[in-house]
Design goal:
The chain is about 45% helix and about 15% strand. It is built from 21 helices and 16 strands. Helix 16 crosses helix 20 and helix 18 crosses helix 20. The N and C termini lie far apart (about 55 Å).
Length: about 475
């Protein structure tokens, strides 16, 4: 079977507008996919060059296919499971920053280049004081970017029309601000001229972004059948969910240069992404954290199975719509629409998201994702949010065990062991406390300021309510207790 290539994809040549540090699944199924749609609709007219920014790995597969690949989005659309296929032709070249340095560096001189996209993992945007300008390339991503920008500044003799727009999607808060800070620190460390520093500040734009899409990658077990369906072979095939959101925060308005919303794409330009981040963390992540431990102890193993469990589905919906949304500041309809999309995403039959995987570090997750909604609901309504309160008891029930083995606390569900993974200090606390009676156990958990940053036991009726839930779970089991409380 023939490999996908430019001829088969019908690739058109366009000016290179985007240099992308990172050639992984997420960027190809998110940024490059969106730009491909904008190109097709005549809104962008720009190609992308992929840069492999690390020493290990290979571009062999993508070069073999002349940078063409397929994205298959799989999920619920119009109320039924669907697959949407798109051959992405927005990528024109791929270059290895280490083994093809000169060819990579030449792109700094590109007259049409306007955007830098990056996804170098959360650890990628870090300042490395041991990095050097003379390295080809510098070690760190900020080092590579600083040198690339400096060579562009020199080639175009400081022309402010040749500044670039940075679009980092690394999953850290204020990713663009951190990246700019690293670049300026390196410029100072390398004693680069003041004119370059001014050019960075005045001619370049560092956006901070929030991205959201589950990308499940290469479908290894299904690939050969999919190739038969396609009629061609695609070793760069990437799968993901239909839902996507890209929030871009910028001091300068760049929406005219990146007109993705005009192509019907889920991109929001704003001068403040924090309400959108709060929406995602509270609704999507908060819902996960509030229900997964209870669902697991009810006998479910994955999110999809949980959504087919009417008791858990009702719990999720009542938590999100009744207790989380009332604490958020965005317009209610926006929040409702986002929540509807979250429930649909949880019901995606193509995503097998294990509850035990989500359970990792649940104590710190509850503090970051659920506690703000819990406290704001309490302050606003002067009563406990029933479902979020129950989620504390579910966490305590899940974190019940006395033996730590291979860096995990060992819990038990229906006589079968499961591994509880968290910081060792957290595991040791629960190993020492989870066997105590429900009242003492509850007090010790809620009053632990190391967990919550404050003493939750002072909230009226919280201790008594949680202790009662814990006692019932121990006596009757999770499912019967939830049926009694929420039926």
């Amino acid at each position: 079977m023939e490999l996908l290539n430019k001829a088969k994809a019908g690739k058109q040549n366009r000016p290179v507008k985007v240099l992308q540090f990172g050639e992984g699944n997420f960027l190809r199924a998110f940024v490059d996919y969106m730009i491909d749609i904008a190109n097709e609709q005549g809104k962008f007219n720009g190609d992308i060059v992929l840069v492999k920014p690390i020493e290990f790995g290979s571009l062999e597969h993508i070069k073999a296919q002349e940078c063409q690949y397929t994205v298959q989005l799989r999920g619920i659309a119009d109320g039924r499971a669907q697959k949407q296929n798109r051959i992405v032709t927005s990528v024109t070249d791929a270059v290895d920053a280490y083994n093809e340095y000169d060819r990579y560096a030449e792109y700094a001189k590109s007259d049409t280049l306007r955007f830098i996209v990056s996804n170098t993992t959360e650890a990628g945007i870090t300042y490395d004081a041991t990095d050097r300008l003379e390295y080809m390339p510098p070690k760190s991503f900020p080092g590579k970017l600083t040198k690339f920008l400096y060579e562009r500044y020199q080639y175009f003799e400081g022309d402010k029309e040749k500044g670039l727009i940075m679009l980092p999607v690394e999953l850290i808060d204020d990713n663009g601000l951190h990246l700019k800070e690293c670049v300026l620190k390196l410029a100072s460390l390398w004693e680069l001229e003041e004119g370059f520093v001014s050019w960075i500040k005045e001619a370049c734009v560092f956006t901070s972004t929030l991205v959201d899409r589950i990308v499940t990658g290469y479908p290894k077990d299904e690939a050969e059948d999919i190739f038969k369906e396609f009629g061609y072979e695609d070793r760069m095939l990437v799968t993901g969910e239909p839902f996507a959101l890209w929030v871009i925060e910028s001091e300068k308005d760049i929406s005219g240069e990146l007109p993705l919303p005009q192509a019907g794409l889920p991109v929001i330009f704003t001068d403040n992404q924090k309400p959108y981040k709060q929406r995602k963390v509270r609704i999507l992540n908060g819902a996960h954290t509030s229900f997964v431990l209870a669902s697991y102890l009810c006998g479910n193993d994955i999110v999809l199975e949980s959504m087919k469990d009417s008791l858990i589905l009702k719990f999720v919906k009542d938590t999100v719509y009744g207790e989380i949304i009332p604490t958020l500041s965005l317009p209610k309809q926006e929040l409702m629409d986002f929540a509807d999309a979250v429930i649909t995403r949880f019901e995606n039959p193509y995503v097998k998201h294990a509850l035990l995987s989500i359970s990792l570090n649940s104590v710190s997750k509850w503090r970051a994702r659920c506690m703000p909604s819990f406290l704001e609901f309490w302050e606003k309504e002067q009563k406990l949010p029933l479902h979020l309160t129950f989620s504390i008891a579910a966490l305590m029930a899940f974190y019940t065990g006395s033996e730590i083995k291979d860096s995990a606390l060992i819990g038990s569900r229906d006589g079968e062991e499961y591994r509880i993974l968290d910081d060792m200090a957290v595991l040791q606390f629960f190993a020492q406390n989870s066997q105590k009676d429900a009242v003492e156990y509850t007090h010790n958990v809620l009053s632990n300021k190391e967990f919550w940053g404050e003493d939750l036991s002072v909230i009226p009726n919280l201790e008594q309510t949680v202790a009662s839930f814990v006692s019932d779970i121990r006596t009757s089991g999770m499912r019967k207790t939830m049926e009694k409380v929420f039926a």
